[in-house]
Each structure stands twice: as structure tokens, then as C-alpha cells.
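Recap from last week: sequence in, structure out.
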Amino acid sequence: MTHFPVAPSAVADTASALGTDPITLADLLRVANEPGFERWREQVRRTGGCSDPIHLTGTTVTRDAVTGAVLASYSTDTEPGGRLRVACGNRRASRCPSCAWTYAGDTFHLIRAGISGDERKNITPTVRAHPKVFATLTAPSFGPVHNRPDTGPCRCGTHHPENSPHLGTPQDPDTYDYAGAVLFNNYAGDLWRRFTIQLRREIAARAGITQQALRDTARVSFGKVAEFQKRGAVHFHAIIRLDGPEGPDTPPPHWANTALLDAAIRGAAGHVSLTLDPTRHHRPRTLHWGRQVDVRPIGAHLPGAVDDAAVAAYVAKYATKAAESTGTADRRIGERSELDRLPDLPTHTRRLIETCLDLDTHHPGRKLARWAHMLGFRGHFSTKSRAYSTTLGALRQTRADYRATQERRAAGLPDPDEGSTLTLAHWTYAGHGHTPGESWLAATIADGIRTNRHTAREALNDLDRPGEAGEW
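Predicted C-alpha cells:
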């Protein structure tokens, strides 16, 4: 049993020193002195220090497939509180930094495998030679905002510091097109779908072939991530690659190159638009991409090229984020009155949320109120085409299979592929989360895990991959 040498009279001082409050400290002491504390800590370590673990109750029984004899059994009755804690798996860093870190790592490997290849993930290394670019599609202007130009002051005449709260906010809120901003976010996924369709047309036209011939000779693959600018407008970063007709395992046609892909992307972005029908309160509106389209080749020995690991790390970073850069809430907003309980909500962000709520009834089916906390955006933050690379599900399954193999070997059980065992399981959801003291301890465990992993990877990079960018 673990005891903390903290006298009751010193609780407040100790809490202050630990950066917590007396209630949390008191609960921390309770948890640390429970008989099952060491097992609880082991459970939390196995979740990676998850901030909001899922609690399960249940049993598993492994039997001999022929005789029916019990080879191994497990019950949560022996666990602390009679529960097994498993990671929540939330991708958002604002909800669970630990699970988001794992998600970002998986995204990094998924994205990089589609750039450089990885035979362990069934992506041939020859894909490295396929034409590919890192493209950014932005939102149009909805009105002048405060910014930091590369040269000179902001249009308002001020040199804003990097952390200025004015960055991204309208210079004239009364004339800013808030309706256009949230509708663009809401329809951004539709614009992206139209862009991918038009991109194939542009590629075929520049290659001098028909669209049917393009389908027979080449395939366009992509992996993308959404990012919110400070002004609250979403934009997309995408790795776009040209393959042969069967995907990354087949070489692209002779005419495929990064210059053609660059021109096709710019042409498609400039051509795509989406016209919304007028409502009683709003005029007809046409949505389109912004004029700023950035396309950079990926790979060595190309002018202006970006490194594959740097691209994968960038995509992985934003795969775990949402609209936090605008100061919005990270949970759904049920009613307008809930905004009054968010005192730190920036004025610009509040108006974007209010606009979503106001427009909801005028655009039925678009669920603007449901996604008001996301400033109208309702799409997935990280997506890929089917043939781009492996899948997040496959990466998670590989990790689960590895852990299951370790546990079977520790229990002396044969591999399930031999068909000699049968495992029966029964699980019931029993809640989620931590008490205040458990949360503090879990965060400490998660921080230790991250520090150890970063230290090990930095050492590995220094020894085996000098100069390589990326965190995963």
C-alpha cells in the first residue's frame, strides 16, 4: 500500500505546490491508499494515461476446442472497483491528449506509407517515384481580417504580435459575411468532392486522353486533413498522387508528372463552385475555393519540394485538432443560452456560432445548429481515398493482435491460428472517466509515457535516421 506523507493540516499547501486544488489532492490520497492502487495504475498505463477511459465489466473464458476444458479465465471481479478500464480512443487532443497522440501516430504512418511506401503495410516502396504533391485549398475572403503580412503592417496599420487576440478577427464586423463563412464551412466537404471529380477531368484534358482512358490507365489517390484558420474558415491540406490503374502497386502512365498534376489541381480548384438556392432571408449564393492555392511537390531533388516525413507530421498534427484555434467550445451547443456559460468565448467565434444557429431553419438538412461548435463544418477532419495507403483500422488491429499475442504467450496459450482454442467473452459498459484525483494521476502517467517515447525516438533518430523530420 502506498502512503503520501501529507498531514491533513498541510493539504492546502501541498495542493498549491502540486498545482491542483484541495479536493483533488484529497481524492488523490484516497486513490493512492486503496488496496488495488498498483493494479489501477497498471490499467491506466495500459490505456496510455487516457483522460476518459471506458469502464467495462465482464468475463472471458478460453477453452480447449476439442475437450472443452478451461485453459484460462478472467473476470473483472478481481479488478479495482470491479472494472476494467480501456482507452476511449478519442482523436481530439482537447478531449484526450493520450489517445490523440496514438491517433496522430497512426495517421503519420498511414500518410507516410502513401508517400514513401512501406512493405509492412503492403504499400510497395516503388510508390516513392510516383508523381505526388502537397496541395492546400483555402476558403475565399468574407471580409478583411487582422493579419500579419509577410511585409509591412496589417491593413489596419498595426504590426500585430504572433499571439495577438485580434488576428483573424474582422476589421469591420458589421460588414463581415458571417453567413458566407459558416455556409462555406458547412459545404466544404461537398466542394472537396466536386474538386476530386473535376481534378480527374482536368488531368485527362491535360494528358490529351478521354476520362474513360484515364480510368483505364491511371488512378488519382489522396490523403487529406482539414485545418481551421484563426478567422474560423476551414481549409484542406492534401497529398495527391498519380498511380497506375490498379493503385500504388502499378506504375503511373508515361505522361504523368508533377507539373501536370500541379496544373490540374489549380485548374480544378478554380473551376469548382456550388450554388445555393435562395431562402426567404438570404440571396442566392455561390460557394467556391479561395484564390490562394498552394501546390508543392513531394520528394527529393525537386525545386520547392517538401520532405515526406515533414508532410506526414503536419497532417498527423492537424488530424487531432478541430476548431480550437478560434477559441470555440469542444462540445455541441444545445441552445443559444449555453453561450452565456462560455465567458472566454471570443466575440468573433460567438458570432460565427450564433450565425449557425440562426441559419439552421433556413437550410434544412444541413444540421448547422448541431455543428455550431464546429462553426458549421460537419465533415471528417482526416480522410483518404481507398487506394492511397493502409487504413487506421488495419493499424489498430495490428496493435491489438500484437498485444493479444503477448498475453497468450504469458498465459502459456497456443496461437489461435492453430484452431485449438475457443475464447468466449461477455462485456458490459459500466461508465467512463476518472475521479478528480484519478485524473491528476492519469495525466502524470501520460506525461511520463510521452516523455519516455520522445526520448527513445530522438535517440533512434540520432542513431539511425539523422536529419529526418517528424515526431513519429
